[in-house]
Amino acid sequence: MKASTVFDCNILQLPRIYSPAGSITAVNSNKELPFSVERIYYLFDVPGGEARGGHAHKKLCQLIVAASGSFDIIVDDGNVRRTFHLSRPYIGLYMPSGLWRELDNFSSGSICLVLASTLYDEEDYIRDYSVFKEWKS
Ligand code: TYD
């Protein structure tokens, strides 16, 4: 979505089923999420302080969750930048397509879980920020 802005991102409070023996959070396509999940991937073994994910997607939308630990997500629509800090497994950041994103400030041992609307497709990536700015204009 070329016209998306950083204000189309939403922090989603996911259901949390509490038990003294541990909590469960379940995420269903088209229920808690405004899209169907085609792929799940997760980042792990990220060294503390490392940065990742300087790219945009033309079509893919996603939910990003700090399944463990914490990190920052910097979202950029070509005009405005917003930073979200994720640190709870029952809080997700919904990101529509068409936004530049970077992840940084990973705590050691953190896990970044991503629920994505499409299978992996390199053609869907924009990996150059100046190309992204041109594509958005
Ligand atoms: P990439 O999305 O570029 O990660 P980041 O932007 O966080 O550094 O992916 C890194 C590598 O992993 C790249 O070679 C593509 C590969 N990859 C897959 O094969 N399948 C996937 O689902 C993902 C997310 C990445």
Whole-Å distance between the termini?
Answer: 12 Å
**Within the largest sheet, what's the order of strands?**
1-7-4-9-2
The fraction of residues assigned to DSSP E strands is 35-45%
Q: Which oligomeric form is depicted?
A: single chain
Unreliable sequence segments: none
Bound molecules: thymidine-5'-diphosphate
Number of helices: 1
How many strand units?
10
Shape: globular
Fraction of residues in helices?
A: under 10%
Order of helices and strands: EEEEEEEEEEH
Note the topology.
Elements: E1 10-13, E2 39-43, E3 52-57, E4 62-68, E5 71-76, E6 81-86, E7 91-95, E8 100-104, E9 111-116, E10 125-126, H1 129-136
Antiparallel strand pairs: 1-7, 2-9, 3-8, 3-10, 4-7, 4-9, 5-6, 5-8
The chain binds thymidine-5'-diphosphate.
The site of thymidine-5'-diphosphate has 6 residues, from β2 and β3.
Main traits of this protein?
globular, 137 residues, binds thymidine-5'-diphosphate
What does this structure look like?
By secondary structure, this protein is mostly beta strands. The protein is 6% helix and 38% strand. It is built from one helix and ten strands; from the N terminus they run ββββββββββα. It has a five-stranded antiparallel β-sheet, with no helix packed on it. A five-stranded antiparallel β-sheet has the order 6-5-8-3-10. It starts with 9 loop residues before the first strand and ends with a helix. The site of thymidine-5'-diphosphate has 6 residues, from strand 2 and strand 3. Thymidine-5'-diphosphate binds at residues 39, 41, 52-53, 55, 120.
